[in-house]
Amino acid sequence: DTAVSQTPKYLVTQMGNDKSIKCEQNLGHDTMYWYKQDSKKFLKIMFSYNNKELIINETVPNRFSPKSPDKAHLNLHINSLELGDSAVYFCASSQDTSTGELFFGEGSRLTVL
Amino acid sequence: QQQVKQSPQSLIVQKGGIPIINCAYENTAFDYFPWYQQFPGKGPALLIAIRPDVSEKKEGRFTISFNKSAKQFSLHIMDSQPGDSATYFCAASNTGRRALTFGSGTRLQVQP
Question: Across the strands, what pairs with B20?
Fold first, then answer.
């Protein structure tokens, strides 16, 4: 059973298009995250949701809109894609804030041409 | 502003060697310091973590050393194996803000 699953795994699209990435976790966790990993492997937090409520929004352009329909799902919609949006996007989840452990999905590689 | 600085960027050791990766942090509110391991095409996975009330933690071949006064912590991998070849990330967080702040990563190659 995959704990944190993301779809699609690969996404190739043209500049200006709109795309979505979906994430689901079956761990029963309350908190979910989106991280962006750039070409230099740097991992940066974008958003965090706790029980469907946005709790972290890290100076991300408003072309990026996360949506959490329930605490097991966190989707990321990106409007008007730009070349600089090319990256690997990771979804993660966590439960117990005292341990702080994040469980990551396998990533969605977005390539904007 | 990079709150967690990691070095070196890359590291090559021979099998059986002891690679050491170092991290320094700025935010004194951080109270949780994990290390994550990432293989190509996979998401990061927790390797080992420490809290600032202890100076060292060992799990198998992996050891974290923590120096609270210097605001530094490091990962040591004993008897390294080719299967340990991966990218390693240090990170930090505090209970008031759940999201991890990651270091820039260290690409480790263990040669047979």
Answer: B76
The SS3 assignment for A21 reads strand
**Which of the pair, A52 or B20, is modelled with greater confidence?**
B20
- Contact with chain A for residue B11, Cβ under 8 A: no
Model confidence over B59-84: pLDDT tens digits? 999 999 999 999 999 999 999 999 99
Give the amino acid at B79: D
β partners of residue B87? B38, B107
CB contact under 8 A, B34 and A4: no
Q: List pLDDT tens digits, range A48-81.
A: 988 888 888 887 899 999 999 998 999 999 999 9
Å from B40 to nearest chain A CA? 10
> Computed over its alpha carbons, how large is the radius of gyration of chain A?
13
Residue B2 confidence (pLDDT): 59
State the Cα–Cα distance between residues A8 and A10, nearest whole angstrom.
5
CB pair distance less than 8 Å for B43 and A97: no
- Strand, helix or coil for residue A85: helix
A103: Cα within 13 Å, side-chain hemisphere? 18
Q: How many Cα neighbours within 13 Å face the side chain of A100?
A: 23
Summarised one tens digit per residue, pLDDT across range A82-103 is 999 999 999 999 985 556 789 9
Name the residue among A23, A83, A12 with its Cα closest to residue A48. A23
